[in-house]
Design brief:
The structure is a single chain. With 113 residues, the protein is α+β, with helices and mostly antiparallel strands. The protein has one domain (2-108). It contains 3 helices and 7 strands; from the N terminus they run βββαααββββ. It has helices at residues 40-57, 61-70, 75-78, and strands at residues 2-5, 8-18, 22-28, 83-87, 91-94, 99-100, 105-108. The protein has a 7-stranded antiparallel β-sheet. A hairpin with a 4-residue loop joins β6 (99-100) and β7. α1 runs antiparallel to α2.
Length: 113
């Protein structure tokens, strides 16, 4: 399975758990840490998501709340219906905005709208 935002391939997903959400790991093809990625806004969102999830997982409510306030810069990505997963078995399907974590972990949920 491969994760895309619009026509930008972000990376390959390995699904390891499925319940209401799916979680697993991602092998990034999109160099979000690079200085010149071609899409700075998307890169900054991925970095923001990783940092926010770290604060949440470590119980750092003060810094997590600060990150939440900064999310308004990324509402176009968060509310976007252009997040896609392409799979050989399932074809192409929409997902809600994924949550990126440290260690190349990711959480996503299929968008049934």
């Amino acid at each position: 399975m491969n994760l895309f935002w619009k026509d930008i391939e972000i990376g390959a997903l390995t699904e390891t758990n499925w319940d209401m959400r799916s979680s697993g790991s991602i092998r990034f093809k999109f160099n979000y840490e690079g200085e010149t990625t071609g899409n700075t806004h998307l890169s900054n969102f991925i970095k923001h998501s990783i940092e926010s999830s770290n604060y949440l997982e470590n119980g750092d409510e003060e810094n997590y709340n600060k990150m939440i306030k900064e999310e308004s810069k990324f509402l176009d990505l968060i509310n976007s219906s252009k997040w896609l997963v392409k799979s050989e078995n399932d074809g192409i399907f929409k997902i809600l905005c994924p949550i990126f974590h440290d260690n190349n972990e990711i959480t996503w949920q299929r968008d049934y709208k």
